[in-house]
Amino acid sequence: MESKVRSLCDTYKGYFPIGAAISKKCIPNYQSMIREHFNSLTPENEFKFIETQPLEGVFTLSETDAMVKFAMDGNQLIRGHVLIWHQQTPDWVFVDQKGEAASRELVLSRMKEHIQHIVSRYQGKVYCWDVVNEAIDDDDALLRDTKWLSTVGPDYIDHAFLYAHEADPSALLFYNDYNDMVEVKHAKIYQLVKGMKERGIPIHGLGLQAHFSNFFPSVEDIRRSIEDFASLGLQLQITEMDLSVYQYQDNSKGRLQPTEDMLKLQAEKYQQIFEVYREYKDIIRGVTFWGIADDYTWLDDYPVKERKDWPLLFDEQKNPKPAFYAITSFADKEENSYGI
Ligand code: GLA
To answer: Are the beta carbons of 151 and 107 closer than 8 angstroms?
Structure first.
């Protein structure tokens, strides 16, 4: 049972909203924790293209509606994740009636229809959208080779933002990606977003996924990336944070518990990273964890299949871990210094 501890989001009230990715399965299990510790929620899959329009013109939104209602009932912010991505997108989008590759015009019209249907349905409820996810290439090219790119061309990104803005002019629109602190990738993200701003594309924020580990990246690189992005004049949000206890390629399957050293290192790393986030609270306008407790995390199967991981702030019994105290204990000092 969860012991009485500080509320995470209350502790961060003077800084930024604290969010969690939630799935339909986990809502009943975690309901009280979700309400207690988080004031922003991101449905893990329920806004993705394949879930929301699996067949052309067939929108399947009852689960999405239920999640949005759940968040609104708890007075929590809702991040919409994600409209356009190369994964979890149905094949029909790129195939025409004759079964051949769809033209640029057809794909663009389908993109427009999809974005406008989803964004306008949740207008006034979803306050920000990850409009495009992971469009930057990890190798030499600027843009990742996706069907969106090969059928529409590089302006598919601009179009996605324009369609979303038309559908809900008050929603905040984000470009979202990982490894933003890796120098080459950072430069490409910067170039993409700067170009969009110069072209007058309605982009309001940059989502930094923050899938980290005890070993990567360095806190200095995280800071440098944030500081540099600050000059773009956009808000930043940390959108998918977790911190694996392993080196990326560590193959040690079969471990049933994390060691104390793993948890200690993790707590130190979380603490150092959150010190940086708090320092940049004027531009970091949200921090979302990719999950709630260690009993449910995508990292159990990624990047190594069946390698149990413990990347979050709460353990498998839903108790706060050293990492939880590491990022909340600053509040004790603040209280003491006010003589409370
Ligand atoms: C990426 C996506 C998320 C999610 C995670 C893995 O970071 O942006 O939607 O799929 O991978 O769970």
So the answer is: yes
Whether 340 has a pLDDT exceeding 90, the answer reads: no
Closest ligand 1 atom to Cα of 82: 9
The pLDDT of residue 1: 47
Residue whose pair of structure tokens reads 């800084």 in the numeric block: 15
Rounded to whole angstroms, the Cα distance separating 299 from 295 reads: 11
Would you state the pLDDT for residue 338? 61
Averaged over 195-204, what is the pLDDT? Answer: 98
Question: Is any ligand 1 atom within 6 A of the Cβ of residue 298?
Answer: yes
Tokens of residue 71, six digits: 């968040």
pLDDT at 2 over 80: no
pLDDT at 100 over 80: yes
**Is 279 considered catalytic here?**
no
Cβ neighbors of 24 (< 8 A, separation 6 or more) are 46, 63, 66, 67
Task: State if residue 209 touches ligand 1 by the CB under 6 angstroms criterion.
Answer: yes
The verdict on whether 240 is a catalytic residue reads yes
Using CA atoms in the order 329, 330, 331, 334, what is the torsion angle rounded to 10 degrees? 140
CA of 24 to the centre of ligand 1 (A): 16
Peptide bond into 43 cis (omega under 30): no
The residue annotated as part of the active site, out of 44, 56, 134, 268, is 134
Q: Which pLDDT belongs to residue 334?
A: 77
Any residues with CB less than 8 A from the CB of 85 and at least 6 apart, and which?
48, 49, 132, 133, 134
Q: How far is Cα 227 from Cα 231, in angstroms, rounded to an integer?
A: 7
Residue of 240, 296, 300 with the most ligand 1 atoms within 8 Å of its CB, for mutation: 240
pLDDT at 339: 56
Ligand 1 center to 86 CA (angstroms)? 11
| Burial bucket for residue 257 (CB in 10 Å: 0-12, 13-18, 19+) | exposed
